[in-house]
Amino acid sequence: MCPVTSKIVSAAELVPLFSTPVFKSTCLCTVSEDVIRAQTYEAYPDGTGYSSQNTKILLSKPFKDLRNEIEEHLKVYVFDTLKVGQGKVVHTQSWINLHRPGNYSPKHFHSNSCYSGIVYLKVPPNGGGIIFSKPHTAMNIISPTHSEMNIFNSERWGFDVEDGDIFLFPSHLIHSTDINHSEDDRFCLAFNYFLEGTLGQHTGQVTLRIKS
Question: What residues make up the domain containing 71?
């Protein structure tokens, strides 16, 4: 390496400008499989999986401890990581997704929500992971191949998942799940939260109250 090249490399700084932070951690609180399976499920219209009829499942008693833990993670994500300085996060919706063998979740985002998340309740081996996709807000003029994929050049980024894994992300972020290639059911709990309180300032100030 020539001295000039060495100087350029040592002085360089890579800035993840306008990134979309995804929070990943583990929930220690569990819900029994009997309770999970006892829920009433209905098929999604596209036939890719099933959703619990209860769309406020975190408000039910068996999920109380899990809800409390989720909200502690949300406080870290929203107020400590994203440095939001106003309001509080309030539950709006939560439901369980059931993916039987061969099922998956197609690309989607969560509307009418600020922050969304997923807790994996039961993941069999080869049950499939979660994938986040880059929104196409501008046309790509060229599409060269890459010698190595990383978070700076990828169009999609996936994570393997295990029981208890929790992911938090802005609700507009597009995500999907792999096909369940196992011979058992995969269960994950999805949820939406909104900011409540007096937000903004001066002519941009608004006070929001969320009816959960």
Answer: 21-134+156-208
